[in-house]
């Protein structure tokens, strides 16, 4: 049986949670940073801030530290060190990837219609430049969520399909896609590749790219308890092709501290986190489901919610703009949540139909949030919704 998650112990690892009274419910936009990470960045800059690869002692130490960070990052997702690239952001890396892919002429791209623009715009641009056809992969409604499935993907595939992209978890809806099954479906077409945006999943679940069977997978450390922001790559490696704007030395040096935070039994830690986050999202979902004037977007079921979604909860209020609701929350509390489309504009405008309501209200929690925080947020939200 998995041990209960100790949220107080977790919170003590994040200086920002003790430094002020802000409650962070905008974690999908960027998590708070571990104290060990900020200390490691400071130590690197103060003690080993030199160019890599030289033979003098400090350079050797710096190179070793950098390589340890790269190795830790690879192990975090069960990849080999020569299979990964660390860059400034997922958005930049997917843009870089689009510039080096060798796609046969007149191929077909199948792109998710519910993804963040980071995983759609590079491929739309590439298809336009090289004359490929784009097919939009639209979700189906499953248990109240909009999911991408092998079943709604298969009709779009053909012998000309060479590239498929999708998200692992929607940054608006929070639903978890079955990426392993999707990868198997994509690879049933000879030569077809799958590119997955894992940014919204990485803070909540363990990643195993080998188990998933994907071709390309990216997430952002600054949304996964770390911090990321010059490294010249030589040779014909993946890093040379994609790492055109490599991660800063000091930031890569801090990655082992992020990985260590999850402990030696990573699987048990992630499971306890999932159980804790289920409690958080269920408090909010239970309240929202009782309101006749609220529409939840994504799976709103309570039982076993950790298996289907992460605690990124989006909703809208009848007769109220999402912007106005968030501003009313901020006016009377220290809760930091957001409104908008969060760069998943096709999803919010086309599938949710919220273009004229300032998008959704998004409350995005992670494991360092507490049940007490969510209950207090619910009380404030109740006041706001009852005020007309």
From TrEMBL:
Domain Aminotransferase class V residues, every copy: 23-229, 269-377
Q: Per UniProt, what is one Pfam family of this protein?
A: Aminotran_5
Q: What is this protein called?
A: Aminotransferase class V domain-containing protein
Organism lineage: Eukaryota, Fungi, Dikarya, Ascomycota, Pezizomycotina
């Amino acid at each position: 049986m998995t041990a209960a998650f100790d949220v107080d112990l977790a919170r003590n690892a994040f200086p920002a949670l003790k430094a002020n009274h802000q409650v962070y419910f905008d974690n999908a936009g960027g998590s708070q940073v571990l104290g060990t990470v900020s200390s490691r960045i400071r130590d690197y800059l103060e003690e080993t801030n030199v160019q890599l690869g030289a033979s003098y002692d400090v350079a050797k130490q710096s190179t070793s530290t950098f390589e340890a960070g790269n190795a830790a990052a690879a192990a975090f997702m069960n990849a080999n060190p020569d299979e990964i690239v660390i860059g400034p952001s997922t958005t930049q890396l997917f843009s870089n990837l689009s510039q080096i892919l060798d796609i046969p002429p007149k191929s077909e791209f199948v792109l998710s219609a519910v993804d963040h623009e980071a995983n759609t715009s590079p491929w739309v641009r590439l298809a336009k430049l090289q004359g490929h056809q784009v097919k939009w992969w639209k979700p189906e409604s499953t248990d109240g969520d909009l999911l991408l499935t092998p079943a709604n993907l298969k009709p779009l595939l053909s012998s000309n399909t060479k590239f498929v992209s999708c998200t692992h978890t929607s940054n608006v809806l929070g639903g978890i896609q079955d990426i392993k099954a999707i990868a198997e479906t994509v690879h049933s077409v000879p030569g077809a590749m799958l590119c997955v945006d894992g940014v919204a999943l990485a803070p909540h679940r363990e990643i195993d790219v080998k188990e998933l069977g994907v071709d390309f997978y990216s997430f952002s450390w600054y949304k996964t308890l770390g911090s990321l922001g010059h490294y010249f790559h030589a040779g014909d490696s993946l890093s040379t092709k994609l790492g055109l704007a490599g991660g800063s030395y000091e930031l890569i040096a801090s990655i082992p501290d992020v990985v260590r935070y999850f402990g030696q039994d990573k699987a048990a830690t992630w499971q306890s986190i999932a159980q804790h986050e289920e409690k958080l999202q269920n408090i909010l979902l239970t309240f929202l489901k009782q309101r006749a004037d609220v529409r939840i977007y994504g799976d709103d079921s309570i039982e076993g919610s950790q298996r289907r979604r992460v605690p990124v909860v989006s909703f809208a209020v009848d007769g109220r703009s999402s912007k106005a609701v968030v501003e009313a929350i901020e006016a009377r509390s220290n809760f930091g949540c957001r409104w908008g489309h969060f760069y998943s504009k096709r999803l919010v405008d086309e599938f949710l139909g919220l273009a004229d309501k300032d998008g959704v209200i998004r409350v995005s929690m992670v494991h360092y949030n507490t049940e007490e925080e969510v209950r207090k947020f619910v009380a404030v939200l109740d006041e706001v919704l009852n005020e007309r």
